[in-house]
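hey can u check if this looks right to u? its 128 residues, i copy pasted from the old doc so theres a chance i mangled smth
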Amino acid sequence: MSDGFLDCDAWKAMLDREGVRASGASIGVLTKDDYAARRGRVLVWRGTDDGASVGLRGYSGKFDPDLAMLLVADPDALQAVLADGLAQVPLQVRRGALHPYMLMTLDDLEDVGLSDFVEDFGLVFPRH
């Protein structure tokens, strides 16, 4: 596909290098422009026992129920993540170039095996 920052093969290669753990839910990646327009393409990935599974889905303002987390970012931030790995996510969040959205509760994230992943990004849920 033409948008290098949403290239499924490049994301799969990076995620496989990172050794992403298998989980029962997916993470979506969407550009800020597509998010604002409420239409476009969302790159969806999930860790499996055989490596990362990566694909594209249409986006029309709603998300499929299997999405646990959404990363909305500038194309440059997505390129940085692709080039340098997931350690770039918290750096891009601090820069304001990437915005993570949790689409599941902390309990649900724990159930699908993604709570550690969220914590690795330095994101927290308030505990009441």
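The beta strands are 26-31, 40-48, 51-59, 67-73, 98-102.
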